[in-house]
């Protein structure tokens, strides 16, 4: 093996050794790191997109959407098979009452009355999740997980909160808070869809 071949082999080995760190690199959004891949329900999910929810001039939270495969169109996200996750990290303190109201307003703005009537028990359960936590503090991490054949489960700082909500239509109604025709934040929607 000559010197040039040895150098090429070493360069290739160095590149291969560095690849796992690239594969699991984190995306930084307003100081919050979102892993490029996570494992949920035994499957690897990819970060579809991430962005910041702002209200007026205030940064409220950073959110990331994880799917089994990246999707850029809302219908494809809503129809995506397999587990899904919305990961939220609070960037400021918000009362759970205000946070719960924002979720309810988002669902109301992006679903029909008929859809809401069908999901009413789950919407009520979802409201109880926020009643269990008086305040969401800066740095708190909330995740909303969909697991096929099980349902939607909420976690706060890794701890399960609330009951399992079984209907995928409910999870999609929650996703439409950010991805619907009247999203909570018009800049966050394209960010979650992976648009640069």
Automatic annotation (TrEMBL):
Keywords associated with the record: Lipoprotein, Membrane, Signal, Transmembrane
Superkingdom of source: Bacteria
Chalcone isomerase domain mapped to chain residues: 26-194
Pfam families xrefs: Chalcone_3 (PF16036)
InterPro entries reported for this sequence: Chalcone_isomerase, Chalcone_isomerase_3-sand, Chalcone_isomerase_sf
Signal peptide boundaries: 1-25
The protein, known as: Lipoprotein transmembrane
Taxonomic lineage of the native organism: Bacteria, Pseudomonadati, Pseudomonadota, Betaproteobacteria, Burkholderiales
